[in-house]
Amino acid sequence: MCEIARQSRESYAEFARKCDQINTLQIAASRQILTGAFDKLPESCNKTNKGDIMDFANAVAHFNWFAIIAATVAAFALGGAWYAKVLFGGAWMQDVGLTEEDAKNANMPRTFGGAFVLQLIAAMMLAAIIGPESTWLSGAYTGLLLGLGFLATAYGVTYLFEQRSLRLFMINAGYNVVLLGIMGAVIGGWH
């Protein structure tokens, strides 16, 4: 019995040693991959006030405010067209349960003012992610990836639990994906 316990303890010790070796190799490989990835970042990503890769104060200092305002106005215009009755407005109102009377009684200055401010914040965050050395194509690509990878998926999860229609998901998530693509193109292309 003691012999079996001793062999089990030795086997476990050998197993633990091998696991430690594997973990050490995995950590070293991960460090090498991450270091290589950071080495391949554009030079603008490495030029920050504090030497950090992501420095928001430095990003803000390099904002092209004309591009950000233009992207915000473009987003606002897209929303006006997207949610007009000619495109998706009627279906959207039906799926969210709004009537014409509800729309007439809404506080439009608050709604449109709040939407503009939120779009402006979104444009600023997108500009921080895109960076000053982008092109219209890389900006559009980044915006589309963020829209598909984060916004559309977040809408999808929420809509599944709220048991909302696929049509409403397509309208709202589609708007935000297209919106970020256009914002990214404007911000990335305006130098």
What would your notes on this structure say?
This protein has 2 domains: 2-40; 56-189, no CATH class. Helices cover 81% and strands 0% of the residues. It has helices at residues 2-39, 43-46, 56-61, 65-82, 89-96, 100-105, 108-130, 136-162, 166-189. The radius of gyration is 25 Å and the shape is flat. The termini are far apart. The protein is an all-alpha fold and 191 residues long.
SSE layout and pairing:
Blueprint: H1 2-39, H2 43-46, H3 56-61, H4 65-82, H5 89-96, H6 100-105, H7 108-130, H8 136-162, H9 166-189
Roughly how many Å apart are the termini? Answer: 78 Å
Average the pLDDT over all residues and give the rounded result. 82
**Which spans have pLDDT < 50 for at least 5 consecutive residues?**
45-51
Strand content of the residues, in percent?
under 5%
What's the Cα radius of gyration? Answer: 25 Å
Largest sheet: none
* Total domain units: 2
Estimated structural class: mainly alpha
Q: Quick one: how many beta strands?
A: 0
Helix content: over 70%
Briefly summarize what is shown.
This protein is mainly alpha-helical. 81% of the residues lie in helices and 0% in strands.
Output the keywords.
single chain, 191 residues, mainly alpha, 2 domains
